[in-house]
User: Fold this.
Amino acid sequence: MFKRRPLPDHLNVPWRVRDALILVVAWFGLQIVLGGVLDVVAIWVPVLKHFLQGAVHGDVVPSFVINLISIGIGFGILALYLRKYRVGWDVVGLRRVGILRTAKYLALILISFVVLANLALALFTLLPGFNADQPQINEFTSSIRSHQVLAFMALVLLPPIFEETIFRGFIFPAIAKRTGMIWGAILSSLLFGLAHGQANLFVYTSILGMLLCFMYVRLRSTVPGILLHMLNNYLAFLALLAHTGK
Assistant:
């Protein structure tokens, strides 16, 4: 039998798959609990009731605040885990990395992503009902021109920081400890794709996730992944702006 390749030191994290699952479940669970508590309090606080109704109806400002709270809950749970294991944020990949080396990998991964994503989407288009061009629609994409700054923060800046820290910095090494790097990259990337909740985005983001795992393994930092993720989202942001301007 072949021996599993030993993990690089920066993937040999103290937490396990169970911790990653608990983090995800706790993150969703606390949001549900908080939503229930706010709904009860809103009965006696008209301003809060109006705010929550705005979020339900897709108003951008309350939706953005809810988004910030959601990210804050996720980072709060992660901070508790880091404290539990007595490690710093560098252990989830927030490390400095050389600019020149980063630039080389960003160019390599970006080219690879464009080629692989287009090939994958072309193959999946052969499946009945699969729409490679299905647009992503939410309160921010539909209000991208009227609330451009908030949409930019919600679509381009915040998701890469949160998602790279959670998926590449925390979940990927936890799974890799159990299954090895390759399966760790595949499984964490599939979870990353599922989190986007749309068939064409699942294909697109799963491939992106695997390439970002590779970059994290090579560069020992999630910062280049955050930058590439931001660039990807920014290009999509520009495409949305161009489309809504027609």
